Amino acid sequence: xxxxxxxxxxxxxxxxxxxxxxxxxxxxxxxxxxxxxxxxxxxxxxxxxxxxxxxxxxxxxxxxxxxxxxxxxxxxxxxxxxxxxxxxxxxxxxxxxxxxxxxxxxxxxxxxxxxxxxxxxxxxxxxxxxxxxxxxxxxxxxxxxxxxxxxxxxxxxxxxxxxxxxxxxxxxxxxxxxxxxxxxxxxxxxxxxxxxxxxxxxxxxxxxxxxxxxxxxxxxxxxxxxxxxxxxxxxxxxxxxxxxxxxxxxxxxxxxxxxxxxxxxxxxxxxxxxxxxxxxxxxxxxxxxxxxxxxxxxxxxxxxxxxxxxxxxxxxxxxxxxxxxxxxxxxxxxxxxxxxxxxxxxxxxxxxxxxxxxxxxxxxxxxxxxxxxxxxxxxxxxxxxxxxxxxxxxx
Length: 395
Known about the structure:
Number of strands: 0
Largest sheet: none
Order of helices and strands: HHHHHHHHHHHHHHHHHH
GO molecular function, one term: symporter activity
Structural class: mainly alpha
GO biological process, one term: carboxylic acid transport
Strand content: under 5%
Transmembrane segments: 16-43, 115-135, 180-198, 204-228, 262-286, 306-325, 346-365, 371-394
Main location: membrane
Shape: globular
Pfam families: MFS_1 (PF07690)
Radius of gyration: 22 Å
């Protein structure tokens, strides 16, 4: 394996897969978070919520111009959904997501990650395109569409992990995972940045769903053209790169049927620790991801254009931090300064406790909107360390 300078090792077919996965996750998260911004423009003020609006305005005073902007934004809303209905719509995606995580992993093992990941993204694209029609039909239809989107997206992460186990040798997994999942942050940044602007164009809020849904469908064409389940199935991979990959990943025995050792899994301390860490980290991360645009508009009173840009900033910070951090951790590992276990533990601590402290400081910041945004940037940004921590442990 002394051919580290070979062009096939510097940029090979595994890197093409990484790029495709990156772009796929960019689409997945674009279609996941677009509703967070769009719903602000979709909903008009509820006739029975005036007292609550006054109370919130007393908490965070607003200027006369801000009040006028807020009133005009509310008048443009198309749907008379109260906060309970909005919460159900925003949360419905995750009910569907929960249903198919395990199924996605098992299907990817049986049918291949290429099919499952590709189907997950493209079907989500189709469902996203028809979302405006569902919303205009009824809130129930919209909730059903969002549940189905959660189900189709729920298979993508497990399928990606299966594909990485075939394609990415262990010494490259931390930085490769950070680069792949960086698509989540880029998709979030782009979507949050331009969705506020799109809602104010002549195309209105439906364009937020249609544009990103079409992206998911277009991505699927390239995925099925250039992605393969394993190096053995790739028709043009070089022998040098194939040997390099298989030297690290070993031989996979796909045809061997093994029973799932459920008792051993659920009595495994490392498994339970990873689950606990992931639940804690995701609790804060997805609360922010889902509710941030609504919070910035209703509590901090930023207008739609400001809202989108400020909502995107934490995820840009997260992406940049994850790239720098993962590269540095790989350097420490190669130099023998830290072991793999130490890097996993340190990274998980950073990704859990710094966000925790930052979120606890937000109530203290009160109505200082810019300080709140800084704290959210720190909270979300340092979450990027998790790609060198518990996320690697999944594989």
